[in-house]
Amino acid sequence: MKRLLTNKQARFASLVARGQTKSQAYRSAYDAGRMKQTSIKVEANKVSKLPHVAGAIKSLRENHEFMVTPDEDGVGGASPGDKEWYR
């Protein structure tokens, strides 16, 4: 069974596919305001290595499908209409 991405994973994958570093994407997708830079780097790397997240990043890059749309912070978020990438 194909595992779906959470909203945060979908946003992370889309931002990485668009060219942000894993750390930048993690800070944008997750609540990392109180985390140290080293912790963000470690967690971002863990998320990026999850098979379903890595697969989404690869697919997005190959197909130039970026589901990030502007939101309140101006950075972007996962498009709620795309059920394939998140739950």
Note down, in words, how this protein is organized.
With about 90 residues, the chain is mainly α. It has one domain (about 5-80). It has four helices and two strands; from the N terminus they run H-H-H-H-E-E. It has helices at about 5-15, 20-30, 35-50, 50-65, and strands at about 70, 75-80. It has a two-stranded antiparallel sheet with strand order 1-2. Strand 1 (about 70) and strand 2 form a beta hairpin. Helix 2 packs across helix 3 (about 35-50). It is globular.
Please sum up the structure shown.
The longest helix has 13 residues, at 37-49.
Features:
87 residues; single chain; 2 strands; mainly alpha
Main sheet summary: 2 strands, antiparallel
Number of helices: 4
Q: Mean pLDDT across all residues, rounded?
A: 81
Q: How much of the sequence is in beta strands? A: under 5%
Helix/strand-derived class? mainly alpha
Contiguous low-pLDDT stretches (5 residues minimum) are 68-87
Helix content: 40-55%
Estimated radius of gyration: 12 Å
Strand order of the largest sheet: 1-2
Number of domains: 1
Task: Please give the number of β-strands.
Answer: 2
How would you spell out the order of helices and strands?
HHHHEE
- How far apart the termini lie comes to 14 Å
The rough form would be described as globular
Layout of secondary structure:
Layout: H1 7-17, H2 22-29, H3 37-49, H4 51-63, E1 68-69, E2 77-78
Antiparallel strand pairs: 1-2
Helix pairs in contact: 1-2, 1-4, 2-3
